[in-house]
């Protein structure tokens, strides 16, 4: 059996009286591509925030490579090998494509804005190499000197992925990467995510595009109202009565 890279144990996050994530336990094995789905407000982004240290847990634990990372700051978690993208793009529009990616290469993602930007502008050889390699991987080398604001929306999504890849992660967490993309862009993205996994990267993916999740993920975790209601391969999740019920009446 492949060792668990990430273990989530009864993760809970309350916001006042609302339990956004309610005692969710799951694990991700090294090299797996796992989807996280659920109706709007199910707690998907909050769970990603708990894993990546952007939101503290109310209770429960997160372990990465057997190490308890509960309570670590997001940039510390980033340095341990967990990188993420965001539902709402966090590209710095007035910086170049290259500088945006350098923020990842310096491990500055998750630091306050000004420290992150300062990090992105520190161009040591190693950082430049990492940044260029990440841009190459997503096909944006030719745009390295362009302002991020001038990239088409679909390309900005790849820029965000490049910034995460520049951190040299072992676990990549993608929050709604296909949102706003058209059908052919989504198909291209699906193939790209699959290729990352084929290269050995472990990937967790929150996505509303069910076809994308079902076609590329090996396992799908389903949340509804903060609770885990399914955790199985796509075929089983598709037929799961609890999942069908959770989605009933919800326009996905
Ligand atoms: N910072 C916060 N303060 C208060 N409530 C929050 C906060 N973040 C999330 N919530 C609430 O927690 C619940 C889960 O939100 P979350 O964004 O994790 O859901 P989601 O499954 O990612 O939804 P969507 O698919 O719409 O992005 C929602 O009811 C949301 O309003």
UniProtKB/TrEMBL annotation:
<dbReference type="GO" id="GO:0005524">
    <property type="term" value="F:ATP binding"/>
</dbReference>
<dbReference type="InterPro" id="IPR003593">
    <property type="entry name" value="AAA+_ATPase"/>
</dbReference>
<dbReference type="Pfam" id="PF12399">
    <property type="entry name" value="BCA_ABC_TP_C"/>
</dbReference>
<protein>
    <submittedName>
        <fullName>ATP-binding cassette domain-containing protein</fullName>
    </submittedName>
</protein>
<dbReference type="InterPro" id="IPR032823">
    <property type="entry name" value="BCA_ABC_TP_C"/>
</dbReference>
<keyword id="KW-0547">Nucleotide-binding</keyword>
<keyword id="KW-0813">Transport</keyword>
<keyword id="KW-0067">ATP-binding</keyword>
<feature type="domain" description="ABC transporter">
    <location>
        <begin position="6"/>
        <end position="250"/>
    </location>
</feature>
<dbReference type="Pfam" id="PF00005">
    <property type="entry name" value="ABC_tran"/>
</dbReference>
<dbReference type="InterPro" id="IPR027417">
    <property type="entry name" value="P-loop_NTPase"/>
</dbReference>
<dbReference type="GO" id="GO:0005886">
    <property type="term" value="C:plasma membrane"/>
</dbReference>
<dbReference type="InterPro" id="IPR051120">
    <property type="entry name" value="ABC_AA/LPS_Transport"/>
</dbReference>
<dbReference type="InterPro" id="IPR003439">
    <property type="entry name" value="ABC_transporter-like_ATP-bd"/>
</dbReference>
<dbReference type="GO" id="GO:0016887">
    <property type="term" value="F:ATP hydrolysis activity"/>
</dbReference>
């Amino acid at each position: 059996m492949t060792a668990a890279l990430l273990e989530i144990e009864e993760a809970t996050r309350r916001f006042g009286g609302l339990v956004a994530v309610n005692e969710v336990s799951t694990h991700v094995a090294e090299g797996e591509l796992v989807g996280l789905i659920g109706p709007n407000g199910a707690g998907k982004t909050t769970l990603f925030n708990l894993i990546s240290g952007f939101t503290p847990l109310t209770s429960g634990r997160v372990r990465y490579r057997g190490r308890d990372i509960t309570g670590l700051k997001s940039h510390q978690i980033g340095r341990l090998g967990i990188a993420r993208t965001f539902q709402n793009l966090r590209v710095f529009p007035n910086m170049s494509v290259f500088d945006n990616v350098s923020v990842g290469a310096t491990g500055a993602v998750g630091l306050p804005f000004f420290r992150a930007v300062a990090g992105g502008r520190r161009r040591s050889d190693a950082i430049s190499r990492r940044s260029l390699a990440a841009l190459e991987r997503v096909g944006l080398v030719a745009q390295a000197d362009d302002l991020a604001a001038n990239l088409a929306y679909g390309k900005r999504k790849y820029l965000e992925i490049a910034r995460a890849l520049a951190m040299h992660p072992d676990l990549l967490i993608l929050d709604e990467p296909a949102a706003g993309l058209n059908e052919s862009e989504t198909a291209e993205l699906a193939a790209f995510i699959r290729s990352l996994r084929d290269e050995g990267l472990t990937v967790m993916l929150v996505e509303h595009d069910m076809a994308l999740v079902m076609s590329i993920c090996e396992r799908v975790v389903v949340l509804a109202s903060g609770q885990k209601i399914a955790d199985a391969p796509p075929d089983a999740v598709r037929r799961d009565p609890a999942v069908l019920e959770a989605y009933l009446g919800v326009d996905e």
